Each structure stands twice: as C-alpha cells, then as structure tokens.
Amino acid sequence: MTHMTSRREFLATSAGLAMAAMFPSLTLAQGSKEPFKISLAEWSLHKAINGGQLKNREFARAAKEDYGIDGIEYVNQLWKDNGQPWMESAKDKSYVTELKKRADDLGVKTLLIMCDNPGQLGDSDEAKRITAVESHYAWVEAAKELGCHSIRVNARSNTKLTPEEQQKLVADGLRRLSEFAAKHGLNVIVENHGGLSSDGQWLTGVMKLVDRKNCGTLPDFGNFRIGEGKEYDRYQGVDELMAFAKAVSAKSHDFDDQGNETHTDYFKIMDIVVKKHGYHGYCGIEYEGSKLSEPEGIKATKRLLERVREKMSA
C-alpha cells in the first residue's frame, strides 16, 4: 500500500515538474488564485518620508495596516532614519536586520530595493564603471538579507557617446554586477528610467548583450520620456520589456471620475503584462501624482488594479 502511494506521488510529481519546465507561465497561472499580486513601491510615499511624516522603518507597517498590501519595494535613497548617510545604510547590519524583523512580524514580503545614485554602470571610464558596480554590492547584500528577489538599478552612461557605445558600456557594468548578485541568488533588474533606458528597443538590446539569466527588466508604465520632447510608446515599450521582466511597476498620476488612470489604459497594459506575457507576479503601485495626496493616490491605484484583476479573474 505504501509502495503504491509513493509511486503514484512520484509519477504525479514527475508529471508536474515536466509541465513546469515546459510551460512555466501556464503552471504558475493554474497554481495561482489571482492573475497577479499587488505590492507597494516606497516611492509612492517619498513626500511623507522626506517630510518626516513617515520613517523608512515604518514602511512595511504602513503598507500592511494603511493599505492592506503585503508586498513592498524599498527605495534606497529613502533609508534616512538610522542616523547616517543613506548611501551607507545598507552596510548597517543591525538596521537591515530590524527592517527584516519588522516585515516578517507583519507577514509582509520584501521584494526588491530600488537603487539610485551609486554611480553610472555604463561609465566610459573603466575605473569609474567598476567603482559604480562595487558601490551596488552592499545593496545586493542587504537585499539578500531582507529576502528580496532583486535590486533595481539604472542603465546610464555618458550621453555624448552614441547609443550603441552606451549600450555596450551599460551591458558591461550590468554583467559585472549580475555576476556578483548571482553568488547571492539575486537578480539585477533595470527600469525604464529616462534617457535611452526609456527606449524599449535600446534596453532590450542591452539585455541581449548581458545575456545572463539573473539580469532582467522592471517595466514601468509611465517612464518612457527619452528626452528632447521624445516619448516612447508605453504599450510598445512594456510589451518589449516584458520579455525580460522580473517585476512590474504600475505607475500612476491622475484619475478620471470613473477611477481610470488618465495617462495609461490599465486594462490594455495589464492584458499585455498578464495575458500576452504570462506574468503573474507582483505589480508595484508607484503613485507620482500631485492632485491626490499620496495615501489617496495609492488607494486609487489599488482600486484600479483590483478592478483589472477582477475582470481578468472573471
């Protein structure tokens, strides 16, 4: 009896593993109760944090208790409440441990850290490029301790160079950083964040040059301003970047009377994310508007994502 049960379990497990290997997105969708999950990017509360109304160490509590969200995405430049320059905060082991405990006690999952300003990963000066790469190491280690899957970085280089030259330099920096992150089981993901990084074809070209499984993208619905008045089509851009996506940023600014975002058709763009590309992970609310307060903007974005999710589930 025991032998037959174990054999049946073995066959079922083997079949499941084979299915997962062949059709990972399909298997994930079947095993998930929802088409996608909702997280909160800390930048949605940057005014409150910079203004002293909220501390970085309180972010997990605010996400869970104020907004009913159990997945969070930190922003490194908002780590200002441990008595030292924020760039050094990742090296403060006791502080990182405290952040982890606070999130764990609340049942909140820390997904990633958005890293800004540790230098240009595509600097044309090799010594500066290597320094920029190494300046991200402490954030990789902090992200690992927090239980994150990724750090988000910027793909920037010297703007006087050609797009092709910048692409190669950025790819070199990303490859070096990804090799370090791989040792910690972490991903390095790039957001479309202005300049050439907001050109979907350019950034996917960078990903192909890097050619590492743990290097990917974080498509942001709203960051497609290339510069000089040029704006990349957000739907095309998200479509292109989803091929390498390991997270998604649901950027929002303004809403109409029906609760729809006035710059992005969330139903259309989430169809691209979920239905076309089979993404079922977290979509991070990143409210950047000014007409609504930060709390109201977060709630409005959450309500809209919930409406999209309900329609997909139906």
Could you explain the architecture of this structure?
The chain is of the alpha/beta class and 314 residues long. The protein contains 12 helices and 10 strands. The strands form 2 sheets. It has an 8-stranded parallel sheet with strand order 6-5-4-3-2-1-10-9, covered by helices on one side. It has a two-stranded antiparallel sheet with strand order 7-8. Helix 1 crosses helix 2 and helix 11 packs across helix 12.
Could you list some keywords that capture this structure?
alpha/beta; 8-stranded parallel β-sheet; 12 helices; 10 strands
Strand order of the largest sheet: 6-5-4-3-2-1-10-9
Poorly predicted parts: 1-31
Percent of sequence in beta strands: 5-15%
Question: What proportion of the residues is helical, as a percent range?
Answer: 40-55%
Radius of gyration, in angstroms, nearest whole number: 20 Å
Mean pLDDT: 91
Distance between the termini: 42 Å
Biggest sheet details: 8 strands, parallel
Question: Count of helical segments?
Answer: 12
| Structural class label | alpha/beta
Order of helices and strands: HHEHHEHEHHEHEHEEEHEHEH
- From the spread of the alpha carbons, the general shape counts as globular
Number of strands: 10
